[in-house]
Amino acid sequence: MCLAVPGRVLDLSGDEPLTRVGRVDFGGVVKEINLAFAPEADVGDYVLVHVGFAIAVIDEAEAARIFAHLDEIGELAEFAGPLGAEP
Amino acid sequence: MKFRDEYRDGAAARRLADAIAHTVTRPWTLMEVCGGQTHAIVRFGIDALLPPEITLVHGPGCPVCVTPEAYVDKAIEIADRAGVILCSFGDMLRVPGADGDLLAAKSRGADVRVVYSPLDAVAIARADPARQVVFFAVGFETTAPANAMAAVQARREGLTNFSMLVSHVLVPPAMRAVLEGPGNRVQGFLAAGHVCTIMGLAEYQPIAALYGVPIVATGFEPLDILEGVYLCIRQLEAGRAEVENQYSRAVTTAGNRAAQAVMAEVYRVIPRRWRGLGDIPDSGLGLSGAYADLDAERRFGAVVDGDDAAGECISGLVLRGERKPPECPAFGGRCTPERPLGVTMVSSEGACAAYYRYRGAA
Ligand code: SF4
């Protein structure tokens, strides 16, 4: 039930914080989403959507962090022995 | 889809699994709190990638599963009244009460409607002022702010025909209850990522410190879960018990302040009975004094907590992480999604349903 799906904000409407909405594209399916909990969301941002509400703007720099971390631990694992990183 | 597919990369998953295998030196038992994480683990076979020292047990994070029978019965009772429209998330329709479910009520003529968003229920009330519209508000902290906005919206529009039957639950008290359980074997948690998106990380600090368990806020994709396990194991092996954030693309330390503000306005913290876990103090949300007039229990009578029917279902132990679904004697035989004996088989996010769906009856 806590499923939340990432989608890209196509446009915004409404200036009132509680009723501001955006059209959000989920890989081709477009839905109108309430942005009361993501007031900073802008066109082009990816938001995480749960039951019709954006609950976060996805931090793109942080989203890439896991892959840098992977490279790091991949090297460590290589040092550690034969089970190490993928070729 | 961006921010999803790249976190399902098989080669990257194996690298993380290798790193975990290199780090672990002895057995550890971790609990993933959220039913969505359980599903990903079973669906993608993440447990099979892990070294044998690591056991993942499945937590209480399925709001549908823990909603007490008494609330389902109340929802059915309300739905059966003339002039009422009962709105619910789809997952609740097949959850059994003492006598049947909402789907049965619907098929005998009750006006039960499935909504995608709580605001849809407000729209139904707006469009049909002659009828009472009741929204069955369930969920964890992830869903609570959205449901709160339905109350705010109804109030602003002055709708007198909208109310909410509120059965919200909170995650940290349930984690405490698991740790206090006599059969507890959990040594570290993968905390529910989207709950943390709303609430932030502060409430986990005292739990990590008091019980000496690492708590890692973790996302829902395979790489998220594997990295969460890696961070948790690294702490356990080093003798640390801290709060860490694996899911930093969607979780900040402070959480979502706009959502927290609306929750604080609309709800107050109350004790709750959880199906399978029993009474847990300060573990639920009810409407605050300012929104009490929107409480369906005021309009249609209070829910009376009763004892949930005892049977052969051991979903309470499953929700505490003390048993895995295939360890239930009824699993896959007498209990299947078509003929479920318990909520963890009914709910699409329940652990029993996940095992049955992705691993079959055996
Ligand atoms: S398999 Fe069925 S009976 Fe057994 S714990 Fe799960 S829901 Fe209950």
In terms of topology, how is this protein built?
The complex is a heterodimer of chains A (87) and B (362).
Chain A: E1 5-13, E2 21-26, E3 29-34, E4 46-50, E5 53-57, H1 60-80
Antiparallel strand pairs in A: 1-2, 1-4, 2-3, 4-5
Chain B: H1 10-23, E1 28-34, H2 35-44, H3 46-49, E2 54-61, H4 63-66, H5 69-79, E3 84-88, H6 102-107, E4 111-114, H7 118-127, E5 132-139, H8 144-157, E6 162-169, H9 171-180, E7 188-192, H10 193-199, H11 205-211, E8 215-218, H12 222-238, E9 243-245, H13 257-266, E10 267-274, E11 278-287, H14 296-300, H15 315-319, H16 343-346, H17 351-359
Parallel strand pairs in B: 1-2, 1-7, 3-4, 3-5, 5-6, 7-8, 8-9
Antiparallel strand pairs in B: 6-11, 10-11
Helix pairs in contact in B: 1-12, 2-17, 7-8, 8-13
The structure holds iron/sulfur cluster.
What would you note in describing this structure?
- Chain A has one domain: Roll (SH3 type barrels), CATH 2.30.30.
- Chain A has 87 residues and is an alpha+beta fold.
- In chain A, a hairpin with a 2-residue loop joins strand 2 (21-26) and strand 3.
- Chain A has a five-stranded antiparallel beta sheet, with no helix packed on it.
- Chain A has one helix at 60-80, and strands at 5-13, 21-26, 29-34, 46-50, 53-57.
- Chain A contains one helix and five strands, in the order E-E-E-E-E-H.
- Residues 80-87 of chain A have low confidence and may be disordered.
- Chain B has 362 residues and is an alpha/beta fold.
- Chain B has a domain at 64-170 and 255-300: Rossmann fold.
- Helix content of chain B is 41%, strand content 19%.
- Chain B is built from 17 helices and eleven strands.
- Chain B has helices spanning 10-23, 35-44, 46-49, 63-66, 69-79, 102-107, 118-127, 144-157, 171-180, 193-199, 205-211, 222-238, 257-266, 296-300, 315-319, 343-346, 351-359, and strands at 28-34, 54-61, 84-88, 111-114, 132-139, 162-169, 188-192, 215-218, 243-245, 267-274, 278-287.
- The interface between A and B is large, with 44 and 60 residues.
- Bound molecules: iron/sulfur cluster.
